[in-house]
Design a protein that fits this description.
Elements: H1 15-29, E1 34-40, H2 46-59, E2 63-68, H3 79-85, H4 97-106, H5 116-131, E3 136-141, H6 148-158, E4 166-173, E5 186-190, H7 195-205, H8 211-221, H9 225-230, H10 249-262, H11 266-277, H12 283-294, H13 304-308, E6 312-315, E7 318-321, H14 324-333, H15 336-348, H16 354-363, H17 370-385, H18 389-402, H19 406-422, H20 426-435, H21 443-456, H22 464-479, H23 483-499, H24 504-514, H25 524-533, H26 535-545, H27 556-568, H28 572-589, H29 592-606, H30 612-629, H31 632-649, H32 652-664, H33 672-688, H34 692-700, H35 712-717, H36 719-729, H37 736-748, H38 752-765, H39 768-780, H40 787-803, H41 807-824, H42 827-839, H43 851-854, H44 857-867, H45 872-879, H46 883-897, H47 905-915
Parallel strand pairs: 1-4, 1-5, 2-3, 3-4
Antiparallel strand pairs: 6-7
Helix pairs in contact: 1-2, 4-5, 5-6, 10-14, 11-12, 11-14, 15-16, 16-17, 17-18, 18-19, 19-20, 19-21, 20-21, 21-22, 21-23, 22-23, 22-24, 23-24, 23-25, 24-25, 25-26, 25-27, 27-28, 28-29, 29-30, 29-31, 30-31, 30-44, 31-32, 31-33, 32-33, 33-34, 34-36, 36-38, 37-38, 38-39, 38-40, 39-40, 40-41, 40-42, ...
């Protein structure tokens, strides 16, 4: 890489990478925005590639926004984001008042505690509004040193650039493998230069090198562009002195930089030493501290020699080290005591920035210091108020290191671990927990530690010893007056009971403790814990209470307890209503992880209520949100829901692929509810493909208590598919005992889903002389909100009538079945209805694709909200999208629905619902 005649540097050997960048920028200018993560080891040319990207964008008329990660600012919440957005802050008034407050709260300018999704949406809107006038390029250099809040917002924005005239390029050093990984963003790896390109770089920068040294430098540099530029500088006038021996490449490069640093004037060295300790330090403070070190006045002119030496540069109106190795080399070359002095002086020079002050005092402290520890704790508190949980975790961890009080140390670490768990950073949370001394806490502290550990390190959900421990700690916490904590511990224990389908005596341990917590009988936690721990014992009473409750719909967490209790007990109608409120609440609060869990749980059971397009939208969104928030188990759970949906739709191959992936995931080991859903999907798919013996064998497993896919409650929901497989394979006798056990359970357990499933099963399996009465009983149930059961019953009833030669009578229910399945999109069942109609002497046209089927999941969500009268911006805030993305969706929705504008949406969607 070389600069010739004032022209931009030539990048040898990077034609492919430059082409990728050029295409990215071209697509962005055409409103096909995207993001790119550039990875490479130190010196591989990431900075040069970003500089080239900036030039290409500027030449094309794009506006460039840049942020640079710096180790000194990694603990300062939203520091990188503020740096990025400074040129656009004048546009803030164009945002809605809520988003303005959100962004100002993130920057500490307003008393607000914003969440990631709200901040991300505010940034997306701010960037999009400017990009609508001038296409944008976002550059993030040294992204691995950006504060975690900025990184999270950048990922949020980057994943939503598809219709924006915005490109984002973020550079990460290769060893930071976890940064910007598993985000779904495109990755570009910068490897070593080939021999020819390396020779050209060396020839550009050191054309006079003797052949022997040239060969050695080429070998030592190993294709590293920065090494090819800097190693020749280590060669003295006496070529025989050569290069330093046996040093790693990075240390050799640091040596190259520190040698140049040592030759600078004293004032310049002082400026660089201070700057290496805080690369975000304001210029006046930088010069002031440098002056204190030298004992003389230091002016901005002292910076120029470092720029001339190629150690510092000014980019995007910000002073920067030319390369991170310059900073590390300078910082390491300053003595230990000098570094302490610099940090102490920086703390004194930043009176208006208490967070920066606290971190510099921390860096200047040897041993314990309660005052500095308290300052860092206060810094963490301010970060928490701004929604910056990552910065709060870092602050509390460092505060714990600086306290000499063992009890306070454990308390600080526990608080940090709790916040890390909320961030779904299980690795950091586990590290913090490992440093915590359980003996130092009181009963409440031990309970909180166990609660965090259960979230971070759940282990095997079948571990009954863990349940016993949670119960014991819940009792201790209650005695200590921490009843809410005790209830939370009980909830974790109860969840394990239902997830793993543990024996009722294990659940009895949980409900025994629950009875001692003095919670009200209608407290949502009481109902949910009882339902999860002992559904057979507490389920009937919970099912009787649910319809009579008048819940506080503003208590979103309480509504979630009620909704989940209703869902697992088979009251899908009540549960779906409650969970719709919960999902709306978590959307409004920006609680993405809980929204993912809610959509995944509710989506699975809403299949039987016929909301198939909405279920498709919910499960796809749940999977995306779970990926985005690190809730990897709920990614798998959402795929289990999708597998069953695909199977019920008749897409057998897709269903089996998803189900197999779920069952192969280590995350579902012991989690029987997810395993049952996947196995159920396999059975439905085999039935739909006409492999009825296979379907029966597959489904029999979910009824076998010894099988890992068995779940007592959910197996009852699979009874209709089991009965269909048994009848079509002629193996009715194989399921007699299973059906008998289901009848015994239904007699004491008033689950709406179980009773409807059993009624269908009884009618399908009944002898001809008893079937009429059985079908009467099944149809007598209220099936208004159960279109899947209704259509299946009509198919079974029509088939029975035709088989008994009541041909004319059979056609009516068979038509109703066909139309019901067509409205749902249940292709395989719809085909069965058509075949039965043909056998009854009536031809039936093939199913036509409905408008709803042609909409993507996100388009359907957009259409529903637009039909409800929400504006594009309001829809965007609900779905965490920009209003331009919403507009793009609507542009595609109208022709798919055969309408010309927003005013016709409600009618078009009502027509879809009526067909269901």
């Amino acid at each position: 890489m070389v600069r010739v005649d004032g022209q931009p540097p030539v990048m040898h050997g990077r034609d492919r990478e430059l082409a990728v960048v050029a295409d990215l920028l071209s697509d962005a200018r055409a409103a096909r925005g995207a993001a790119l993560v550039v990875r490479g080891h130190a010196g591989m040319g990431k900075t040069m590639l970003l500089s080239a990207t900036r030039r290409i964008a500027a030449d094309a008329g794009m506006m460039v926004l840049q942020t640079n990660g710096a180790e000194a600012e990694a603990a300062l919440p939203f520091a990188g984001l503020h740096q990025l957005l400074v040129p656009l802050l004048g546009d803030l008034p164009a945002l809605t008042p809520r988003l303005q407050r959100t962004l100002r709260g993130a920057f500490g300018e307003e008393d607000a505690r914003p969440d990631l999704f709200s901040v991300g949406l505010a940034v997306l809107e701010l960037l999009g509004d400017r990009a609508a006038r001038t296409p944008l390029l976002i550059l993030a250099e040294d992204a691995h040193w950006l504060d975690p809040e900025t990184l999270d917002v950048l990922v949020f924005v980057a994943r939503r650039l598809t219709v924006e005239p915005i490109a984002a390029v973020m550079a990460v050093r290769a060893q930071h493998t976890g940064v910007l990984a598993r985000t779904g963003l495109s990755q570009l790896y910068l490897g070593e230069l080939d021999d020819e390109s390396a020779l050209r770089v060396l020839g550009d920068h050191a054309p006079e090198l003797p052949p022997v040294l040239r060969g050695r430098i080429l070998a030592e540099a190993a294709g590293n562009p920065l090494a090819l530029v800097e190693l020749p500088r280590l060669v003295t006038a006496d070529a025989g002195t050569g290069l330093p021996e046996l040093l790693p490449l990075n240390e050799r490069l640091e040596t190259a930089f520190t040698d140049r640093f040592a030759q600078l004037p004293a004032a310049t060295r002082a400026v660089m030493a201070v700057f290496s300790a805080d690369a975000g330090c304001p210029l006046p403070a930088l010069l002031s501290v440098a002056g204190a070190l030298t004992g003389t006045e230091v002016t901005a002119a002292a910076i120029q020699p470092a720029i001339d030496a190629g150690l510092l540069q000014v980019q995007a109106q910000r002073l920067r080290f030319r390369h991170p190795l310059v900073r590390s080399g300078v910082y390491r070359s300053v003595g230990d005591i000098a570094r302490l002095t610099i940090h102490s002086a920086l703390a004194g020079a930043l009176p208006g920035d208490p967070d920066r002050q606290a971190w510099h005092r921390s860096a200047a402290t040897l041993g314990a210091d309660e005052t500095v520890s308290g300052e860092l704790e206060a810094t963490a508190g301010r970060a928490l108020e701004r929604g910056a949980l990552g910065a709060a975790v870092t602050g509390l961890d460092r505060a714990a290191e600086l306290t000499g009080d063992p009890a306070r140390r454990s308390s600080l670490l526990l608080r940090a671990a709790d916040l890390a768990a909320q961030l779904h950073d299980r690795r950091i949370a586990a590290q913090l927990i490992a440093k915590t001394d359980p003996e130092q806490g009181d009963a409440a502290g031990r309970g909180r530690l166990a609660l965090v550990r259960d979230i971070v390190e759940p282990g095997d959900v079948r571990d009954t010893a863990r349940i016993e421990m949670l119960c014991d700690l819940a009792l201790d916490a209650h005695v200590a007056g921490a009843t809410d904590l005790a209830a939370a511990l009980c909830w974790r224990a109860a969840s394990r009971c239902w997830w793993a389908c543990l024996p009722p005596e294990i659940g009895a341990q949980v409900t025994t403790v629950l009875g001692k917590l003095d919670l009200a009988d209608d407290d949502p936690r009481t109902l949910a814990i009882g339902a999860y721990a002992q559904p057979d014992v507490f389920g009937p009473d919970v099912l009787r209470q649910l319809p009579t409750l008048i819940p506080d719909r503003t208590d979103i967490d309480g509504m979630r307890y009620l909704g989940e209790a209703a869902l697992i007990l088979g009251d899908f109608v009540t549960g779906s209503s409650f969970m719709a409120t919960v999902a709306a609440g978590y959307r409004a609060q920006g609680r993405g992880a809980l929204l993912a869990r809610t959509l995944s749980s509710a989506g699975f059971v809403r299949l039987w209520l016929g909301y198939w397009p909405a279920v498709r939208a919910d499960t796809e969104e749940a999977e995306a949100l779970a990926e985005e928030t690190g809730e990897h188990f709920w990614v798998v759970a959402a795929r289990a829901s999708r597998a069953l949906h695909e199977a019920m739709s008749g897409n057998s191959d897709a269903a089996i692929r998803l189900a197999d992936a779920v069952l192969a995931s280590p995350l579902v080991a012991g989690v029987r509810f997810a395993a049952e859903a996947a196995q159920h999907a396999r059975g439905v798919a085999a039935n739909a493909a006409g492999r009825h013996d296979e379907a029966l064998d597959t489904l029999l497993r979910v009824f076998d208590p010894a099988d890992p896919t068995h779940h007592l409650d959910m197996s009852g929901w699979a009874l209709p598919d089991l009965a269909d497989a048994a009848v079509r394979s002629g193996r009715q006798r194989d399921i007699e005992e299973i059906v008998s056990r289901a009848r015994e359970r239904a007699a004491r357990f008033p689950s709406p889903m179980l009773h409807r499933s059993l009624a269908y099963t009884t009618a399908v399996l009944a002898a001809d002389e008893d079937a009429g009465t059985a079908f009467e009983h099944a149809f007598a149930m209220d099936l208004t909100d159960w279109p899947v059961h209704r259509a299946r019953l009509h198919l079974a009833y029509g088939t029975w009538l035709r088989r008994r030669k009541h041909i004319l009578d059979s056609r009516g229910p068979l038509r109703m079945a066909r139309d019901g399945f067509d409205a749902l999109g249940a292709h395989a069942w719809g085909q069965l209805a058509r075949e039965e109609l043909r056998a009854a002497g009536e031809d039936s046209a093939g199913r036509t694709v409905t408008s709803g089927d042609r909409l993507t999941a996100q388009e359907l969500q957009t259409a529903i909200l637009a039909a409800a009268g929400l504006s594009n911006r309001e829809i965007g805030q609900r779905l965490f999208l920009s209003h331009r993305t919403v507009s793009s969706h609507l542009y595609r929705i109208y022709p798919k629905l055969g309408i010309s504008g927003r005013a016709q949406l409600r009618t078009a969607l009502d027509a879809l619902r009526q067909r269901q």
